[in-house]
Amino acid sequence: MTSVVLEGYGLTKRFGPATALAGVGLAIGRGEAVAIMGPSGSGKSTLLHCLAGIMKPDEGEVRLLGQRVDTMGERERSALRRTRFGFVFQFGQLLPELPADENVALPLMLGGVSRRDAVRRAREWFGPLGLGGMEERRPGELSGGQAQRVAIARALVTRPAVVFADEPTGALDQTTGHDTMRLLVEATRGGDASLVVVTHDPQVARWCDRTVEVRDGRIMTGVGA
Amino acid sequence: MRAALGLGWRLLRAGGRKGLLGAALTALAVTVSTALLLFAVSANLAFEGRGDREAWRNPVPAQGRAVAVQSVRVDYVRDERITVVELAALEPGAPPPPGLDRFPAPGEVWLSPALAELARRLPADQLAGRFAGGRGGTVGDEALVHPGELVAVRGWAPDSPVLAGKGTDEPRGEVAPTRISDFTGEPTPDAQGYRILALIASVLMAVPLLVFGGAAARLTVARRDQRLAALRLVGATPGQVVAMTAAEAVITAFAGAVAGTLLYVLLIPPLTGIEIAGGSWFAADLWPGVPYTLAVLAAVPLLVGLSAVVGLRRVVVGPLGVAKRETPPGMRFVRVAVLLAVLAVVPTLSVGSGGGMIAVVLGLAFLSINLAGPWVVGLIGRITAGTARGPARLLAGRRLVDDPRAAWRTVSGVALTGFVAGFVVLLNPSADLLGEADASRLRLSVPAARADAVAAGARERLTAAGVRAGTEITGEGGEKVLVVALGGGRAAAPGKSGKGEKADTPVDALVDAPVDARVDAALVDRARTALDGLVPGRRATSTADDDRFGHVLIGDIGTGTIVVLTVSFLVAVVSAGITAVSSVLDRRQTYALLRLAGTPLQVLDRARRAETLIPLAVMGGGSIAVGLFCALPFAITGLDAGGLATLLACVLLGFAGVVGAGAASAPVLRSVTENPAPRPD
């Protein structure tokens, strides 16, 4: 494995009496694409949320390039998510009020980049992702696949270390889903970022370097692609 | 239809914790609206009631056989007005006047409770001496304008000089001896004037309330439109969607309307303390009665339901419009054109225009501001988004463009209050208009033939009462005026110092004395009491007495302004608070996603503030200007320092209220972004 970018040790997370994660450990290498698979309720999304600093594990550690994430306060984790992570989700990840290019530019603007530069840099992603001419369309005027590609551009525009994708093709038909995954993996690799994909679809997982399977809050296997 | 209604009820119940919170917010908005609407309705009925209770003192001359003679005189004590009704029966069995259980016999005096109490408390030579005679009883509430009103009813023989003669040029509030067939009377011009002012105040209060109620209804729709659009997509007919929405809105609004009625009942006791036209209110005045209450209870939910249905238009016409979040169609300029058309009518109005006409134009101006508001907000949004450099202003600007109606809902209350403030400050005359009247010179109309004898009698009475005063007869023709100039302190009793003729001090010498040191109220009341009955049917009054109604009216306009502005601000701030919380609930997924992507809460809060304050600044300022413009035809004076201070206070209160309301919704924002993991709801 190449150098580790993100790793979690002994991650445990409980929701009331239910244990979502029971001492999970996972390491993600630089530029690596990892699929996390498992049935509904297995804990795969919880694992992603813990790794991404969205929620704190009850036990265990998360480190990004050696730096503890799980001990950070909400403000620091927010800053980390804004600058070092990118996100692609199944539902509603675009702001309906903003046109596509401003949706992509928003993370840059939140990081202090001027609007003009942010939009210019955002638009650079539109051509490679097959979105040329759609810069000023609003999310409601895009197809599902186009909206996911805009979300991919937004996830990558800050040049993050890791991109997290939760069921990124869950709302798309098979052909569009494959196209989207191809673009996600290629663009992530092109940006020298790692990719963590949560999915229950083996066809999606096939695009990744390896697959880990989660059941009942535990990692069952680690399979190379 | 039954199934649709049932589904609507299920949607309401199954909305989850946040859905129920949204419904509760709608109900709260309707509660406040209903309570204030009942207040606006009651205020009109209360003034009508006052007018009716006072009507018997404004007699209509008998067309047929007269049963009594009635005159009304105005007297004063301690700057308070006393209404003295003089009555004489022309035949046995004359009906008793309102508030009395029988017709007063000659020589009998009936006093209102407040006057009786005052007569008991003050020295007899200052008040009670004026109402000598047998006490017939107490004037009942049904004959009084307000609980503290000072009213005396005196019985006389038909041939008494008090009820003789025909008055010419009667002072305000007085009525010359009139032969009457009953005590029906008619409302006084003052009462009618107050009713017009109350109607205008009600319009100023009610229109924002209706707008607010409509906004509350749309809150329900805003939360539900996604779900209802989904229902349309699976084949629900427009009628079914409308029925479901209406059912949900009406059920919520009815609960709010009932709560609002209870709230209003609880508010009645403190509201009775608002003093208008010289006094407070009977609790019964402010209870609108069962029919009006039922009408409000029925009308409010129906209006809310109707408003909700209108808000559903997009879902019903095209479900994908909501489901896909396409670019909303732009607002049409016709909205602004309507406002301009209404404003074009305003300069044609004048003080002489009917009260109803003024109320209609005001209401239309109000409604057209509400119509133009979203268009202007959309324009502001485009400018804000176009010039934004940071994410907060960009988000705010795009949000304004995306849903200008929602943004307008947040600021409309305060903007409409700006209109009210602009309108009323120009109509608030200053007491300076009346100047400083002279309370030290009492004037008494006297027949020219008896002028000298009356003057001598006056001097004698004043000296006996120990009042130092000078007298002078002025005027031409058959009626002359005895002027009594009062000086400070008590004159020495005649004979004791040999200077009892002090009462003959020339008027000019006393008049030249400094105004503020001239007299005190007790001295004036002793003089009035001493002069009472000197000329039958006449009271000694001063120019300060003449101005007293003006002072009361100016005070009342000030009180009315405060009441209207208080109601408007209450509506505005509650409206801003509710829409702010509702906006957070509606957009919780968006906020959660922004938080997930690392957006600091401060940026979200800044965006929300900009989204509110930018349109507020523009629309608030614009509404004040429109209000000032609408008031111009009726303006008595220009905008003075007091008016400017009121306007400034309104602007500050408006901004503070909206900022405060936004801040109050911050915990809700924190709550919905606490766990930013995305949910498909």
From TrEMBL, chain A:
<dbReference type="GO" id="GO:0098796">
    <property type="term" value="C:membrane protein complex"/>
</dbReference>
<dbReference type="InterPro" id="IPR027417">
    <property type="entry name" value="P-loop_NTPase"/>
</dbReference>
<keyword id="KW-0547">Nucleotide-binding</keyword>
<dbReference type="GO" id="GO:0005886">
    <property type="term" value="C:plasma membrane"/>
</dbReference>
<dbReference type="GO" id="GO:0016887">
    <property type="term" value="F:ATP hydrolysis activity"/>
</dbReference>
<dbReference type="GO" id="GO:0005524">
    <property type="term" value="F:ATP binding"/>
</dbReference>
<dbReference type="InterPro" id="IPR003439">
    <property type="entry name" value="ABC_transporter-like_ATP-bd"/>
</dbReference>
<keyword id="KW-0813">Transport</keyword>
<dbReference type="InterPro" id="IPR003593">
    <property type="entry name" value="AAA+_ATPase"/>
</dbReference>
<dbReference type="Pfam" id="PF00005">
    <property type="entry name" value="ABC_tran"/>
</dbReference>
<feature type="domain" description="ABC transporter">
    <location>
        <begin position="6"/>
        <end position="225"/>
    </location>
</feature>
<dbReference type="GO" id="GO:0022857">
    <property type="term" value="F:transmembrane transporter activity"/>
</dbReference>
<dbReference type="InterPro" id="IPR015854">
    <property type="entry name" value="ABC_transpr_LolD-like"/>
</dbReference>
<dbReference type="InterPro" id="IPR017911">
    <property type="entry name" value="MacB-like_ATP-bd"/>
</dbReference>
<keyword id="KW-0067">ATP-binding</keyword>
<protein>
    <submittedName>
        <fullName>ABC transporter ATP-binding protein</fullName>
    </submittedName>
</protein>
<dbReference type="InterPro" id="IPR017871">
    <property type="entry name" value="ABC_transporter-like_CS"/>
</dbReference>
From TrEMBL, chain B:
<feature type="domain" description="ABC3 transporter permease C-terminal">
    <location>
        <begin position="200"/>
        <end position="312"/>
    </location>
</feature>
<keyword id="KW-0812">Transmembrane</keyword>
<feature type="transmembrane region" description="Helical">
    <location>
        <begin position="562"/>
        <end position="585"/>
    </location>
</feature>
<feature type="transmembrane region" description="Helical">
    <location>
        <begin position="241"/>
        <end position="269"/>
    </location>
</feature>
<feature type="transmembrane region" description="Helical">
    <location>
        <begin position="357"/>
        <end position="385"/>
    </location>
</feature>
<feature type="transmembrane region" description="Helical">
    <location>
        <begin position="333"/>
        <end position="351"/>
    </location>
</feature>
<feature type="transmembrane region" description="Helical">
    <location>
        <begin position="289"/>
        <end position="312"/>
    </location>
</feature>
<dbReference type="InterPro" id="IPR003838">
    <property type="entry name" value="ABC3_permease_C"/>
</dbReference>
<feature type="transmembrane region" description="Helical">
    <location>
        <begin position="20"/>
        <end position="47"/>
    </location>
</feature>
<feature type="transmembrane region" description="Helical">
    <location>
        <begin position="613"/>
        <end position="636"/>
    </location>
</feature>
<protein>
    <recommendedName>
        <fullName>ABC3 transporter permease C-terminal domain-containing protein</fullName>
    </recommendedName>
</protein>
<keyword id="KW-1003">Cell membrane</keyword>
<feature type="transmembrane region" description="Helical">
    <location>
        <begin position="642"/>
        <end position="669"/>
    </location>
</feature>
<keyword id="KW-1133">Transmembrane helix</keyword>
<keyword id="KW-0472">Membrane</keyword>
<feature type="transmembrane region" description="Helical">
    <location>
        <begin position="196"/>
        <end position="221"/>
    </location>
</feature>
<dbReference type="Pfam" id="PF02687">
    <property type="entry name" value="FtsX"/>
</dbReference>
<feature type="transmembrane region" description="Helical">
    <location>
        <begin position="406"/>
        <end position="427"/>
    </location>
</feature>
<dbReference type="GO" id="GO:0005886">
    <property type="term" value="C:plasma membrane"/>
</dbReference>
